[in-house]
Amino acid sequence: MAVTRSIRRTSPITLVLAAVLSFGFLFFLLSPSSSSATATSTKSRQDDAADHPLSPPTKPFLKNQEYRSNGQRAPPPVVHYHMNNLTSTADPLANGERVLILTPLVRFYQEYWDNIVRLSYPHELISLGFIIPKTKEGNAATSALQAAIATTQSGPIDDRFASVSILRQDFDPPIDSQDEKERHKIENQKIRRESMSRARNSLLFTTLGPSTSWVLWLDADIVETPPTLIQDMASHNKAVIVPNCFQRYYNNDKKKMDVRPYDYNSWRDSDTAQALAQQMGPDEILLEGYAEMPTYRTLMAYLADTGEERKQNKVIPLDGVGGTALLVKAEVHRDGAMFPPFPFYHMVETEGFAKMARRLGYESFGMPNYFVCSLNASTRSDL
């Protein structure tokens, strides 16, 4: 009786609504997803897909994939790198060793680009990497660099590089002006060089690949090197090696163009410098080339023989290195040697790198009679 009474009291409208809702629920569960939404999602993923399985992890690998006989998409191939077979030898050209040229860049100089294009090392074995600050000046440098890259990479095959990467810094530069005098003020050195260390490390850790044998650090204002720079430096088969960096200028006394030392960060240590370091606080750093901080180190800049008959292949041991043109075996970086953005034995950036490399068992060397030249803005028209 209870059941019959309940049914009798139920409104026909209620039953109709219940039936409609039930049908709608079943249709929702059983119907396929919207084809338009699926198509849009698939197209978005394909447009953002990478062409190669060794793509950044944020890029899905969807393009140019093969399908199996059953119509299912095959997974991307697994690529094996035999790191024990990777070499960095005195004859990188004969062994086909890949070189990564890295440059922190604030201003773009066409002379810099023209110089690396003239390098005689096979360009198909050279990859380039740049890191540029997100500033107005950095934006201009990025545009100029991209234009130069487009010209070279669409030009003669032999001039084209294997790959080019451009990074933008995710932190602001510590000083606004990039004028030479402002950059080299002693009060700006610690924050400036700590910032440079962060930029160098970001660039290195992002671009160093499993097939890289050598890393050449080249400053953006290095506008003149021998075309055989890579082969000449690598021929000594040193883990860390640096040439002497000079700058061309007009000598008023001689009434002609001359050269002068530019990079003072390549040196042999002294007892005076070590004594100064022992008296410093944990956050203080030693700086080279400043009268306010005499270290009496032996500077490679002053050991140069500028004569025509000089022995360019002369090599000397160093305790500190500059970064204007610094060649490093990739294994040194892989073993953990980076550019400390903090006082490391009272040194930062490239000098701190040399100290860190030594702690890992790698010695640093310099070529006092082998020259590269930095841009001098006041004599730029004479280059």
UniProtKB/TrEMBL annotation:
Residues 39-77 are annotated as: Disordered. One of its GO terms (molecular function) is initiation-specific glycolipid 1,6-alpha-mannosyltransferase activity. The keyword Transferase applies. Keywords: Glycosyltransferase, Transferase. The keyword Transferase applies. It comes from the Eukaryota. Its EC number is 2.4.1.232. Coiled coil: none annotated. Belongs to the ANP1/MMN9/VAN1 family. This is Golgi mannosyltransferase complex subunit. It comes from Paecilomyces lecythidis. The lineage of its organism: Eukaryota, Fungi, Dikarya, Ascomycota, Pezizomycotina. The gene is MNN9.
